[in-house]
């Protein structure tokens, strides 16, 4: 069961939705998807990038509360972060919010796979 802090973020679902691909200048949107093949959880992420930095992040998810909590946490924690540093910054943010149980860690790994897919598409 996710911690009360993570549950509150998941319930608010801040950052849920899509980013518009209309960007100007050096900004671009890169999208990626992650899924858990056994439980069926899924997450999609849109990253608004400027250079190697995440300017904004939006997500769509289907699955357990941990999946929503990780995505909402990422929305808050990763703005302004270099995309290469995002997994470790997300790990720190989740730990500060009470962390995930061992049975919920699949949600973090799945979200990181979605970010890696977006990064790959962006050519970073």
What order do the helices and strands come in, and which of them pair?
Elements: H1 4-12, E1 27-35, E2 42-50, E3 53-62, H2 65-77, H3 86-96, H4 105-122
Antiparallel strand pairs: 1-2, 2-3
Helix pairs in contact: 1-2, 2-3, 2-4
Q: Please, could you describe this protein's structure?
A:
It contains 4 helices and 3 strands; from the N terminus they run αβββααα. By secondary structure, it is an alpha+beta fold. The chain has one domain (4-122): Sufe protein. Chain: A. The chain has a 3-stranded antiparallel sheet with strand order 1-2-3. Helix 2 crosses helix 4 (105-122).
Q: Which terms summarize this structure?
A:
three-stranded antiparallel beta sheet; 3 strands; single chain; Sufe protein. Chain: A; globular; 4 helices; alpha+beta; 124 residues
Entry summary:
41% of the residues lie in helices and 23% in strands.
Number of strand segments = 3
Q: Please count the helical segments.
A: 4
Gap between N and C termini: 35 Å
Strand order of the largest sheet: 1-2-3
Low-confidence stretches: none
Overall pLDDT level: 91
| SS-derived structural category | alpha+beta
Determine the CATH topology: Sufe protein. Chain: A
Task: List the domain count as a whole number.
Answer: 1
